[in-house]
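Record minuted for everyone:
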Amino acid sequence: MTSVSTLASPAVTTESGPGERARPRRLPAASGLVHALGLFAAVRLLGVAAVALTAWSSGGRPLALLGGSWDSVWYVGIAADGYGRTVPMPPRSFSDLAFFPLYPGLIRALTELTPLSGPGAGLLLAWAAAAVAACGIYAVGLRLHGRAVATVLVLLWGLLPHSVVLSMAYTEPVLAALAAWALYALLTDRWLWAGALAALAGLARPNGFAVAAAVVVTAAYEVWRRRGRDVPRRLWAGAALAPAGWTGYVLWVGYRTGDVTGGYFEVQRRWGSRFDFGRGSLEFVRHLLLHGDRFVFPVALALVAAGVLLFLLLAADRAPLPLLVYCGALLLVAVGGSGFFQSKPRFLLPAFPLLLPPAVALVRTARARPWHAALVVAALAGLSFAYGAYLVVHAHKSL
């Protein structure tokens, strides 16, 4: 009977020589994983170095910028004092209830156990989570396309234009880590692990529900495929557990604000964020085309458009159902939501499966024309480091 891991693509394992039959492997090969992690660490260290040099040339402090900019201040504040802070700024009202609790909770725990400050703990957690995410991304890529594609997938993720966020005290690395391993669990029929990781992802970020959506939709497909017969109890348990984190926090915010079902969404509305099926995004695109705006806005538009194109390519490649649902949900939030247009590429940073088509293409190019692939990687690195430094030091606009 077909398993979840073969809903759309067969599991491809470690590389084999010409004429050899591929040998199944359940976990990432250690040597390949170390290589991929080394490349990821190298590009992220170079990205941090670019931020540091740019900050020092402008009289800024790199660690203060990476650990205490924009949303990081809110996370550190929640970790130190709990929820309850509201900053009125008519016509908006900014409440810390908009920020999900997993990351601040981890910061609080680390500051209690170590002499680290809040920003220092936030940075350490983000860097560790980015490494865990890179391992999970490698595991997914290895299972689907082999070692070479898995390595390039991790490298491309570390070179995204907004990958500087992976080196900041932000929640995207945490969500990416939980999502990557939840998707790997789905691809290998580990339903309880998938459900538990999805529940934690739902406590990490508002768009963390995308992981639960992947678990629930995949489970529903599996039940339908089996015609409701011989469905393992762990599948039901994983599907029931997956949305618990996100739903629990949303209901808690509603209870605290006096409107159980709508309180959280009112908090987001007061921040200027709401889901309007893309109307706000279209209005802002119209504004950009007619009047222009700061550099970050047209770049954000180009990156979101690229994300949509990559999703279509991923679907055309018949990627496994969990990956399509997960990336589709993240894209739906980015495209269909209004407010903070410049942050939309950051919202897509955890959508690493979108990079599978270019990773496969880059591996083919590297085998046929190595220097061409090297030039592509070098160009991506230059763009990533320069744009990341610009965003952190000079953009003066929240990420």
